[in-house]
Amino acid sequence: MKKTLLLAVVLILSCLGAKAASYFFSPSEAASLKALLGGGELRPGDRIILRDGVYRDLGAFDFSARGSLDAPVTFCAEHPGAAVFSGPLTIRLSGEYLRLEGLLFYKAWSAELCLVEFQKEEGVFASHCRMTECAIDDCNNPQKSEVAIGRMSSSISGEFWLGLHGTDNRIDHCYFANKRVGGLTVQIWLGEKDYLNNHRIDHNVFGYHKDYQGNGAETIRIGNSWSSQLPSHTLVEDNVFLHCDGEIEVISVKSCHNTVRRNLFYESRGGLVCRHGHDNILESNTFIGNDIDGTLGIRIINQNQTVYDNFIARTGGYGLLVRMGVYERPTAETDTELEPLTSYHRVENADIAYNWFFGCREINLLSGFGDKEPRHVRMWHNVFTGPADCFRVEHADLIPGNFNFEDNRYSLADGARPPFDGGFTPLEVEPDWAALERARVLDLMSVGQGPSWYLPCRTDRDQIIGHYR
Ligand code: CA
Fold first, then answer.
1. How much distance in Å is there from the Cα of 273 to the middle of ligand 1?
2. Shortest CA distance to 54 belongs to which of 106, 96, 89?
3. What's the whole-model pTM score?
4. How far is the CA of 184 from the centre of ligand 1 (A)?
5. In a domain? residue 6
6. CATH classification at residue 275
7. CA 210 to ligand 1 center in whole angstroms
């Protein structure tokens, strides 16, 4: 009995003492690298470390393992940025607590749909995984078009950089820039078995994204129209979007219960759009348009959207757009053949308060086709300055009873007034707008977005900060 007990203790101790291993690879060892990452032998705490060099044309491979909260399985560069992926590549993550760290993707492109896909195959997801301090720069398939050809072209010819599935994944302190081919920088996929994602996308720098001249080139899309009635609970916070010109939506929210807060949109020719889905919160974001054509603020569609404390300055297009709807919110009984989820659903219960609209070209209420006017829209405590004609209101007769304006302030050019009966009073004292903007931007930049080791990221950050020195 005593012997058995002793043996058991020794066994337990030897299991506990099993040391996590570090595995080193160089570019000539790609085959054994892929065999280890996908082989199922990795243990919590293991580190797969790439020595300096260019890892070319790796194609698609799996990184499958189960780490733990305290001991993730880490795939990283020995020296951040010195191990470079190039050529066709798809890394398929599956399992739990995996980490990608310090990796540079430069002139690589996706061998499959995505460069980094958070699932191995349909339904086999990665959860609790983290991609941190990585950079994806100028990764465009040279065979693919950099401009949209036809209406649905990007879904056929586009390529995605990150495809998130599963739950509780985090993308942080990364840099993404110079995307030119159609397709998303970051797509969050939702499905019947794959929602309530709790993903977190934070402290990243999204640099230049070339104008694709068509749809399907958002920088971030949370969901898709077909899955838009599902909750995602994704959090997008403390990121910088600089010159993200891919298309008219920098971020397209297409699901429910997401939060987008404290992001800086700097001279990006697109907007933050609640395109589909409900119950989203857009809070404390800052938009600096510098009067550039195509720079936008916030567009609201659907129900229960909250828009608080955003600072939207000098957008060349709308600072705010609350649109007409074509259909009611879909229910389980809705025939989506007749009322497709790709259409526009009525705005209802929008709460738009404590925002600053400073010198925006347009504040647009009720434009767009459809006959479902927004209902129960509360606009309180907002400040508006801008050109005399910045309020563009179609269907002014539909404002009373549907929009509740209270305690808004304005200061428009040429002494103009907003075209509403009540709820707006002149701004008695103009704030020091330049100081306010400077404080907002520098405060957002102070949290240190992007990988510390990547020079182009530092240059992008310095470019913004330099405007306020
Ligand atoms: Ca779009």
1. 9
2. 106
3. 0.95
4. 10
5. no
6. 2.160.20.10
7. 14
